[in-house]
């Protein structure tokens, strides 16, 4: 593999990312009302609760894979295949050991899930099998992550997304098949997740062996000194991950344990839009990660800074549109999507999604921490703030009478404080550039989000948007006007060139 990031690969990666996002979008939008209608709101709430625990189960494997991605990318960019094999095999056998140690933990969590959480009456055994299937599939995907990490290191995000698409499509097709031939249950969902995980893991191994002929599974390449390097970085990534989980994956647990399964189901409905918006942002940010790592590996710091600054601005401006539309049309969106009886969740959805205009714009900056192996301080701060989020969520929800609104408000406060102040500042500290560099890049996205949300809310109240065609027309009008103004007035020449570089050649030729 030649050093650098292939320009031809960038559009393929973006197409792959967009395909994965569209699949997740369609599945997320269609599955929620399907589950609510077949299982009920309370039982539906157990599904995202089970998947939210994946982060805790995979803390060490995900963190080690993050470190591996950094070291393996540098090795391969420098064409040091001997070192790459040591990194790969050290991670492979290390992760395999961690997963074996996690099996009893998964079994205990699954068996005692009905005792730990509030599960609807009659769904106790189904909940056990759901947790077994979901977490078992996650362990398999974590193990095959050794191979998908090597795809990432070769900048084959298109193939990485193919693996992910196969996983979710098989899950959904099997759920629909099982529900059509048997009584809908949580057990069948767990089985579908497990089969999807097995299939995706096999595909990951096959693709990795084709794309990465230099990497071989050899126990002799397991290197204790390399393991210390990986766990040195990975250990602080674990700390960071714990903090992140206390931000993102604690809310459903708190709501379920303090307010019950029904409240958990209602909260999960509104939370689905947070998941979808995060999916959009990660789709965009993932394209930049190999670029940042490649620039770092080749000691091209000035281009790294320029791309990072523009990526933050582009992320904020692009995410302003969906975030603003979700906030502005929240009541109609819920009524059309799930049913008018759930429109009361509109305010909760605004609280959950509004702050993402700040917290998603900074995603491109996290690659800088990984590239420079500067993850200790962010990890410590994220853990502290995450613990603060948990305590604040309990305090605001239980002791103020706000209910699950308190959980949403706590996440908005703590996450925004961290990402509006510390994250952009720390990136500038690493790069030794002015402290306001990335903060200034975030402002256009914030202003655009507020404007779009306001316009959407006025349109919604004025024309009483209550049908899907009406919602599409109103949202489309705002989107077209916004994008038409964005291109000539909000982006400079470099930012337009950067955006165009992600597009396939055929589309690029038609955009001026």
UniProtKB/TrEMBL annotation:
Which ranges does the record mark as transmembrane?
A: 21-47, 92-116, 128-152, 159-182, 188-208, 250-269, 275-296, 317-338, 344-366, 378-396, 402-421, 442-463, 469-489
The source's superkingdom equals Archaea
Native organism:
Methanoculleus caldifontis
* InterPro entries in the record: Poly_Biosynth_Transport (IPR050833), Polysacc_synth (IPR002797)
Where in or outside the cell it occurs: the entry states: Cell membrane
In the bilayer, the protein is annotated as: Multi-pass membrane protein
- Name the chain's protein: Oligosaccharide flippase family protein
The answer to whether the entry has keyword tRNA processing is no
Pfam families this protein is in? Polysacc_synt
């Amino acid at each position: 593999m030649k050093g650098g990031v292939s320009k031809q690969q960038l559009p393929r990666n973006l197409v792959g990312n967009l395909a994965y996002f569209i699949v997740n979008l369609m599945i997320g939008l269609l599955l929620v009302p399907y589950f609510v209608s077949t299982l009920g709101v309370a039982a539906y709430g157990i599904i995202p609760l089970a998947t939210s625990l994946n982060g805790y189960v995979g803390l060490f494997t995900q963190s080690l894979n993050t470190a591996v991605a950094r070291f393996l990318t540098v090795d391969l960019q420098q064409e040091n295949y001997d070192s790459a094999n040591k990194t790969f095999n050290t991670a492979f056998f290390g992760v395999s050991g961690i997963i074996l140690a996690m099996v009893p933990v998964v079994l205990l969590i699954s068996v005692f899930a009905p005792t730990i959480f509030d599960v609807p009456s009659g769904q106790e055994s189904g909940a056990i099998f759901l947790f077994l299937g979901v977490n078992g599939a996650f362990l398999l995907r974590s193990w095959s992550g050794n191979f998908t990490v090597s795809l990432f290191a070769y900048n084959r995000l298109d193939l990485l997304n193919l693996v992910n698409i196969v996983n979710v499509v098989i899950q959904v097709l099997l759920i629909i098949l099982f529900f059509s031939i048997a009584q809908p249950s949580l057990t069948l969902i767990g089985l579908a997740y497990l089969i999807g995980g097995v299939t995706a893991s096999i595909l990951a191994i096959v693709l990795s062996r084709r794309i990465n002929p230099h990497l071989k599974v050899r126990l002799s390449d397991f290197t204790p000194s390399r393991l210390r390097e990986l766990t040195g970085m990975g250990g602080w990534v674990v700390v960071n991950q714990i903090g992140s989980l206390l931000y993102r994956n604690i809310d459903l647990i708190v709501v379920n344990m303090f307010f019950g399964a029904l409240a958990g189901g209602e909260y999960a409905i509104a939370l689905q839009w947070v998941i979808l918006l995060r999916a959009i942002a990660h789709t965009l940010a993932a394209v930049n990660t190999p670029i940042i790592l490649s620039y770092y590996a080749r000691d091209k710091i000035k281009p790294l800074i320029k791309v990072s600054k523009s990526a933050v601005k582009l992320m904020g401006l692009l995410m302003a549109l969906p975030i603003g539309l979700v906030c502005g049309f929240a009541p109609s969106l819920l009524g059309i999507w799930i049913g008018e009886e759930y429109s009361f969740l509109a305010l909760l959805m605004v609280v959950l999604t509004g702050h993402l205009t700040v917290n998603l714009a900074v995603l491109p900056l996290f690659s800088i921490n990984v590239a420079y192996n500067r993850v200790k301080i962010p990890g410590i701060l994220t853990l502290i703030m995450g613990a603060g989020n948990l305590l604040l969520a309990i305090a605001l929800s239980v002791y103020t009478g706000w209910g699950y609104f308190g959980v949403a408000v706590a996440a908005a406060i703590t996450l925004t404080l961290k990402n509006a102040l510390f994250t952009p500042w720390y990136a500038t500290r690493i790069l030794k550039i002015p402290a306001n560099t990335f903060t200034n890049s975030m402002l256009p996205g914030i202003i655009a989000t507020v404007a779009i949300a306001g316009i959407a809310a006025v349109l919604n109240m004025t024309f009483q948007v209550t049908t899907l065609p009406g919602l599409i027309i109103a949202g489309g009008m705002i989107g077209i006007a916004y994008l038409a103004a964005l291109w000539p007035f909000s982006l400079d020449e470099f930012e337009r060139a950067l955006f165009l570089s992600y597009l396939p050649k055929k589309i690029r030729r038609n955009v001026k």
